[in-house]
């Protein structure tokens, strides 16, 4: 060992200046305030940030007389505890007129979107945050008709792999149907969205309820690795809430399937129409309850069966209901479906 290697290493003095790096695009020559995140410097315009963020505006105000402001490179210096990537994303939105340049919520765009939600929440910049929340609401709507429209768009991608097939005159689940697979390749995991909304205290029913249901559509049973992947972002309280809510939803769905609406036809029609309805109703068991796990997506299953029964006219042709009683039976099925959807907030306790 030579003498030089035995010398103790030189320690950096704590008062030595940090090696700062100017951001390549967000360091403006005419800026008048410097934000630092670690070693990254952003030289920006105080008036612009103050206009859109009350948090920044307060930080830029003149400090108390006994506190000396930090000056760096001739400008007021504000040291932030955010990452450079987060501040970069936020500043790009501010300098781009508060416009979110994200055409679609996907697994690729979600890291940027989630960063913007956190930053816009922290710095109280409302317009871009509201825009992002609206996109979340559009992707997972609370209104049933809008949810149906989203599912229709997904179904059009799966026309070669339908949810139900006809076997021996009965509608039975297609064993090759896998709901949401094509969509899962594109859209972010609903559990990640739930966790982010909780973190930012954006916990409205309008946002959370359809997200919990969307998560339930991708979950067959508990204990498998896929389930762990799907619900891993949730807090312990939300995991418990999800498990209990999923059980409630599927149990209520199963109870409605086995309960024939009798009578849902006028008494004078009970001999023929009521008898036909009681013959028809057990056929729903084949479609809904064939799997040991029960229905994976009851809202969609009810709609598919209603559409199928309405389109092929089996209630009148096969089960001899008059047209009026057949329509009453279909309306009863619609009400049960709507009841399940409207009770989701209660099932998942959100």
Automatic annotation (TrEMBL):
Q: InterPro entries from the xrefs?
A: BTB/POZ_dom, SKP1/BTB/POZ_sf
Q: Which Gene3D superfamilies match?
A: Potassium Channel Kv1.1, Chain A
Report the residue ranges that make up the BTB domain in this protein.
31-97
Q: State one Pfam family annotation.
A: BTB
> Highest taxon of the source?
Eukaryota
Return the protein name.
Answer: BTB domain-containing protein
Organism, by scientific name, is: Somion occarium
């Amino acid at each position: 060992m030579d003498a030089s290697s035995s010398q103790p290493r030189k320690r950096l003095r704590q008062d030595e200046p940090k090696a700062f790096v100017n951001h390549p695009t967000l360091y403006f020559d005419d800026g008048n305030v410097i934000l630092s995140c670690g070693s990254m410097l952003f030289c920006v315009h105080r008036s612009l940030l103050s206009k859109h963020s009350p948090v920044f505006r307060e930080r830029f105000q003149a400090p108390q007389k006994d506190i000396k402001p930090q000056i760096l490179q001739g400008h007021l210096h504000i040291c932030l505890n955010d990452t450079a990537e987060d501040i970069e994303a936020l500043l790009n939105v501010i300098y781009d007129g508060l416009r979110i340049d994200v055409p679609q919520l996907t697994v690729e765009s979600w890291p940027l979107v989630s960063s913007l939600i956190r930053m816009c929440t922290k710095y109280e910049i409302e317009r871009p945050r509201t825009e992002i929340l609206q996109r979340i609401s559009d992707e997972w709507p609370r209104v049933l008709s809008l949810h149906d429209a989203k599912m229709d768009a997904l179904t059009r991608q799966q026309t070669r792999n339908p949810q139900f097939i006809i076997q021996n005159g009965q509608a039975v689940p297609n064993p090759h149907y896998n709901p949401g697979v094509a969509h899962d390749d594109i859209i972010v995991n609903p559990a990640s969205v739930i966790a982010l909304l909780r973190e930012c205290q954006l916990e409205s029913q309008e946002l959370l309820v359809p997200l919990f249901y969307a998560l339930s559509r991708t979950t067959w049973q508990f204990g498998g690795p896929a389930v762990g992947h799907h619900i891993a972002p949730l807090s312990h309280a939300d995991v418990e809430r999800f498990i209990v809510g999923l059980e409630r939803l599927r149990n209520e769905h199963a109870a409605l399937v086995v309960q024939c609406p009798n009578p849902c036809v006028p008494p004078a029609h009970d001999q023929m129409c009521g008898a036909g309805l009681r013959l028809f109703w057990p056929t729903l068991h084949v479609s809904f309850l064939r799997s040991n796990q029960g229905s994976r997506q009851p809202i969609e299953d009810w709609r598919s069966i209603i559409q199928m029964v309405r389109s092929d006219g089996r209630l009148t042709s096969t089960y001899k209901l008059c047209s009026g009683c057949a329509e009453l039976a279909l309306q009863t099925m619609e009400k049960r479906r709507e009841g399940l959807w409207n009770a989701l907030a209660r099932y998942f306790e959100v």
